Amino acid sequence: MAESAVPGDAPVNLNEARGWLRLGATIDDAVVAQLIRAATNVCEAFIGQWLIVREAGEVVPLGDGAIRLGVRPVVAVDAVALLASDGSETVLAESGYRVTIARDGSATIVIHDRGAASRARIACRAGMAAEANGIPEAIRQGILRMTQHLHEARDGGGAAPPAAIAALWQPWRRMTLGGGR
Fold first, then answer.
1. Of 30, 60, 126, 158, which has fewest CB within 10 angstroms of its CB?
2. What is the pTM for the complete model shown?
């Protein structure tokens, strides 16, 4: 699983969410900020893509074939390092591997000579847009609506999120079939 050293920026800011929730200035800012982050995380999990570009690191076992990264959409692979069972790490030159980034943002890496390494550490950047304004408005609208749903449900309301949220996010949903990542 790919991990980011820092959480991604939210494509919806505090003022937008506060306005959508019809809250006055600075009322519950910390709570609303947490709800925006939670709604953004739900969106990323639902669509299977990161929204705002951020750095990621992934440690993967080396098999006989290409390595498929678990994060999408990949915009760049910055480094590949081989990890040996004794704990040593060898950073490969760019000529030591080949990266293919597909149109859907999935990435595969072929390592030319893995030597005695059993795993690889991949550093990359992934996300749909460089900044919040690059995110499609339907995704942003879904995050606002999910923030509203979470805000209303924070006192124990157990209702399911409105179907409109999934409908807004559905066109960007990326899924894999079977054992792939």
1. 158
2. 0.84
